[in-house]
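Practice record 12: protein with nicotinamide-adenine-dinucleotide.
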Amino acid sequence: MRVLILGGDGYLGWPTAMELAAAGHDVTVLDNYLRRNVAQETNSEALIASPNLVERARVFKEVAGPTIEVIIADCTHYQQMADAFVRCEPEAVVHYAEQPSGPYSMSSYRGAHLTLNNNLNATFNLIWAVLEHAPDCHIIKLGTMGEYGTPNIDIEEGWINIEHKGRSDRFLFPRQAGSLYHTTKIFDTDLLWFYVRTHGLRVTDLMQGPVYGLTTAESILDPRLAPNFHYDDIFGTVVNRFLVQAVAGMPLTVYGAGGQTRGYLNIKDTLQCVGLVLANPAARGELKILNQFTESLSVNEIAERVRRAGMELDLEVQIQALPNPRKELEEHYYNPTLSGLLDLGLKPHYMTNEVLGEMLEVVGAHRDQIRRDIVMPRVRWNTDG
Ligand SMILES: NC(=O)c1ccc[n+]([C@@H]2O[C@H](COP(=O)([O-])OP(=O)(O)OC[C@H]3O[C@@H](n4cnc5c(N)ncnc54)[C@H](O)[C@@H]3O)[C@@H](O)[C@H]2O)c1
């Protein structure tokens, strides 16, 4: 298939591009380097420097064979998006091109404004590029489990049936996010649902949990093909921050009580899920919503797993609670449904000692580049004390 990957320079976009190209698809990646620029602006660069997208595509062709077409363009500029659609004529588009940091979206007016404008305009322009240039194209949109928040009831897969005063109907599952970034993903879902209802788009919205992992089948071919690894408080997920703290001999800093529970998944499973969804497209006029994670873990459980994996590598790992810089429940009910992707054939990889150990070894090889000051929280959710 001809596949256009928006955000193809990102943590998930680049490995997806390689995986789909290796599987024989005709892949074009588009990116405007927003993440690299915001990382630089906020002093949050990745642990391991990666070549630019053109160079990555060149290295991939050299070591693996397939060509990945590169377009440097901004999804918030409609003409640039439309031109990419005319050039690529995609049968499917994978939309990763958003500002994905909760802390950045909560850091300042600039962070909030950029996140809101970038994410909403990118999704809106994508919708119109599909309507005008490729109406049959399947949109695979990366949403987040964070759209649901942490409700005190089971989380369904996108939709809920509600009975009210003797009548019933099916609605989007209630959404209440914990950061402005996550709120933009809710707006995205609403926009897509509107255009699915009114214009018959075909959309799969993947409610993905935090992803971890540094290796995929293609990334191991050459170190220059590795996924980005951020470990700071703005772009680094809790797993990455703990791994770096373990290697640097810093205590693993748990925000508050540490009972914050989310559904996590290995990057290999993100690639599997996108591949499965590509092969099983939504019908015209259908918004298919799938929860995308493999295991639910609390922050305390992750800290314990990293501590255990560190012990096997003779790292002495301490765990320390910090006052929570975020506004969130630190102990709560969490029971999300996971069935759609398993039904499609997802075979999960779990966060085992071995997986964490491999990541610790990669981080250990770059120990000298770790900047300890950027791991600790620099952004607070509110400033009222
Ligand atoms: N990584 C995770 O744990 C995770 C979890 C849930 C959902 N997601 C979602 O998956 C998607 C990808 O996440 P990621 O971790 O790869 O993020 P990332 O920041 O590494 O990648 C996003 C890419 O999109 C690009 N981009 C952003 N705005 C753009 C624009 N206007 N025009 C062109 N390119 C643009 C960025 O430069 C970046 O390379 C995001 O939408 C994110 O919300 C990620």
